[in-house]
Structures are given as C-alpha cells and as structure tokens.
Amino acid sequence: MSKAKKQSDKTQSFDTRVAHGALLDGLETIKKSLDESTLERKVEIGSVLWQLGDAVKDVLDRIKSDVRVEAVAELKGQAGNTKLDGDDLGEATVTIPEASLRVPKGTNIDDLKKVLGSDFGLFFEEVTTVKPRKEFEDRVTALQNPLHKQILHNSVARVEPTPRVSFKRHELPKRKDE
Fold first, then answer.
1. Could you tell me if residue 22 is inside a domain?
2. What is the pTM assigned to this prediction?
3. 85: which strand partners?
C-alpha cells in the first residue's frame, strides 16, 4: 500500500483499538449473562447478535473486495500469497489459488463422449457418487431376503441434521413526527 494512501487512512477518526475493546467487552458481558437468561432473553440477544452479524458481514465483504484488488495488483494476477498490513495491529493474508478448469453446467457430456470416443478419458475424469435413494428405507423393509436387508442396513447411517435457527430484529414503529 502506498505511503500516501496509508497517511490518508490514518487521518480518519475511527480508533480500531477502542472499537475492538468495546466490542469484545460487550460480547463478554453477553456471554456471562447467558447462564441466568430466560429463553425469551436469549432470543432477544440472538436477534441483536444476528443483526450485528449481518452488518459485520456486509462491512467485511466491502473490505475484502478492496483487499483482494490490492493483493491481485501486488501479485500481478498470479497465484500465490501476500500479506497486507493494517496501520496498527491488523493484517490480512490473501491467497490467490491456481486457476482450474471446470466443465460448465449445461455442457452435453454425451455429445463430447460421442465426438471424442475412446479419447474422452484422456481429457476428462469421471467422478461417481453413490447415495441412498429417497425410497431406500421403504424398499429395504419390503425385501424378503434377510441377508440383503442386513447388508443394506449396515451400508448406510442415519444422520440427524442440526435444527437451523435464524433470528429477526423488528424495526421500531416510526413516530408520527418523524
């Protein structure tokens, strides 16, 4: 980063150390209060943190975009790593990965196979995945062969998903004089 750019950033009044400390103190206070909090209070706290998290993500996305631009310029668009220093204690590490080739969605693989014939395997690797069908359990239950039932039951595991939680922070109604 150029010295002139660093100097103009230093003239801003935002003190990252003070903000960092205040945010960590606030989070520590919240953590300590959770043990004695009712579920309703936890929902309230969750909605505040969710809203803050969204706001933080938006700000971070803007910062990351600017940092990426600088890193790409520093590395001249080539793959590699670079570190960018903040004007105090901050640091960003940017990794530009090697470019890779992908087959775009919608590419007709069957046409490629027909045109390339036996040469298809020279250029493309086929990856196969196996997953139980939606009807797996009903079909296993309907089987007559107990050995097949046992083998099939032993070949899969039931994975219970973690329930998803989201929060919403309602806006206060506006006063008539606003």
1. yes
2. 0.68
3. 91
